[in-house]
Specification:
Number of helices: 2
Distance between the termini: 147 Å
Strand content: under 5%
Order of helices and strands: HH
Largest sheet: none
Oligomer: single chain
């Protein structure tokens, strides 16, 4: 009878150990899932921030392109005006030069 009690205690101990192991494994899986979900949420937030920043940069680039185009158009007008002014200055210098006065 003592052998049967010892065997029964061994069987109960093994069953309890298996039960405890499975329960801990489920807890570990649950905590692992929570950890992964938290990491995934952080990654998603960071990706959303990057996407927002990219949209802002794209908008800024469009604005810069428009400004450069406007400045290019103004530069052409200024160059034409300077060319005309130089022509007028050359004409005035020729009229006021001492060689023409002689």
């Amino acid at each position: 009878m003592t052998i049967e009690v010892a065997m029964l205690l061994s069987f109960i101990s093994v069953a309890f150990a298996v039960y405890s192991g499975l329960r801990n494994l489920k807890k570990a899986d649950a905590s692992e899932i929570e950890r992964r979900a938290a990491e995934q949420a952080k990654v998603n937030v960071k990706l959303d921030n990057i996407a927002t920043d990219c949209r802002e940069i794209k908008s800024d680039m469009s604005s810069v392109k428009k400004d450069v185009q406007e400045l290019s158009e103004r530069l052409v007008v200024v160059e034409q005006s300077v060319k005309s002014a130089h022509h007028r200055i050359d004409t005035v210098e020729r009229l006021n030069s001492p060689e023409d006065r002689k």
